[in-house]
Amino acid sequence: MVVAFGDMEAMTAASFVLLTNLVHLVKLYCFIFQRTKVQNLINSINREEFKPKNSDDCNILLKDINRSKRITKSFWLMCFMVCLLFAIFPLLDKSQSEGIRLPLGGWYPFNTNESPVFQIVYVYQILATYVNGIRNISIDTFISGVIMVISGQLSLLNNEFQTINAKQQDFGHNQVEIRKLLLRNVLHYKSIITFTDDVTTLFSTCLISQFVVSVVIICMTMFQLSLVPVLSLQFLSMAMYQACMLLEIFLWCYYGNEVILKSTNLTMSAYRCGWVEFSKEFKQDLLFFMTRTQFPLKLYAGGYFTLSLDTFMAILKSSWSYFAMLNTVHSKEIV
Question: CB–CB of 156/137 below 8 Å?
Fold first, then answer.
């Protein structure tokens, strides 16, 4: 960045990789120095309230688990493709008159144009990019996975309330047992709230750093895409990289939005439980529960950004605004 200062094209080419690595370091810091809390969070998923209670619950959770596996595999494949394209692009690029160049620009305290230094640095950049990409994917899919746990548990809770009326026959219309079922669901909801608070506290720094940096990275990547031919390997590699960046924040925002929607639906699910036939105590408890569910669960990044599709769109709008400004300035410099 310092060496390329003043050259807008070179600065933007270096900045998106630099910022990606910086936010990656923030994520590593959160996981390494809070590994005990992360392990406790993983262990808390096995709490009694979160365990499936029937075949319907198992099917709901299995659907989320399979979806998580597909997302992780797709994300890993995209990362591999980006690294592969970054590796082979310099070898096939015919536009470089000075010969084969390194996949990523950078400053080194030695001459990288000589052999075998060039080959060593070339391999180092590819391996480092791949390793960092895999670690990034592992962290990002883990965070989206724990958010998916919250979403899945809310699905279970919605299903539990919707089937209370059907379960009263199993209890022989015993109002005491039916009320115990309601209280069990309330405890389940409290556990979900606690788990949500733990996730927000633990990963707030990761989320806010990724959101802020993503605005710049998406902007810089779009600017780089505007500089290269569309039908080129470099364009394809940059487009794949951009897709990874977008998917990275989209997963968090999408599942955060699902948490909001499903927690909002709890009020209606509770209302549809057939409460008319139940005892006065049940109705009072249900009313208190429905009052609490008027405030949907939300995950926050840094206590400011809400994990939702609205936030995702706001990031895209901000990135586009900065890109338009950057492109205008660059056009004036060319003229």
Answer: no
Domain boundaries, the chain: 16-334
Residues 17 and 20: their CA atoms lie apart, in Å, by 5
**What are the tokens at 272?**
């549809």
| H-only helix segments in 272-305 | 280-292
Q: How many CA atoms lie within 13 A of 205 on its CB side?
A: 13
Q: Is the dihedral of CA 266, 270, 272, 273 positive or negative?
A: positive
Give the gyration radius of the chain's Cα atoms.
25
pLDDT(3) > 50: no
Chain segment 126-178, per-residue pLDDT in tens: 888 888 888 888 888 899 889 999 999 999 999 888 887 766 666 656 778 78
Give the Cα separation of 126 and 123 in Å (integer): 5
- The first and second tokens of residue 210, run together, are 């990724």
Contact 190, 296 (CB under 8 A): no
Phi-psi group of 172: left, alpha or beta (phi > 0 → left; psi -120 to 50 → alpha; rest → beta): left
Count Cβ atoms below 10 Å from residue 276 Cβ, excluding itself.
7
Token pair of 193 as six digits: 């709230």
Task: Give the separation between CA 167 and CA 160, rounded to whole angstroms.
Answer: 9
Exposed e or buried b for every residue in 244-265, given b needs 16+ CB within 10 A? bbbbbbbbbbbbbbbbbebbeb
Structure tokens at 194: 């606690």
**What kind and span of H or E run contains 166?**
helix 164-167
Torsion region of 99: left, alpha or beta (phi above 0 gives left; psi -120 to 50 gives alpha):
left
> What is the C-alpha to C-alpha distance for residues 246 and 193, in angstroms, rounded to an integer?
28
